[in-house]
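Lines hold sequence, tokenised fold; shown next:
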Amino acid sequence: MEITEGVLYRARISIPSQVPVGTYSAETFLIQDGRVLAVATKDIEIGKTGFERWVSLVARRHEGLYGIAAVLMSLGLGWAAAMIFRRRF
């Protein structure tokens, strides 16, 4: 048990990667004998982290370079796939 911000509990919740970025509200209920005794609401900020965040920032800040890099990468991977499948079959 841990006391954080004056609260005597902590919960870890797995959030799917498909959840859109934004602010969400989480509600916590204290229930005893089938009755709600207390309610607490907390805003939770969902954002991107790691490599996904870096790609998102680059795409927004340098649109042209990001577009050119995406096209070049697609052409390169397509060419590499063609070379691999030409030799194997």
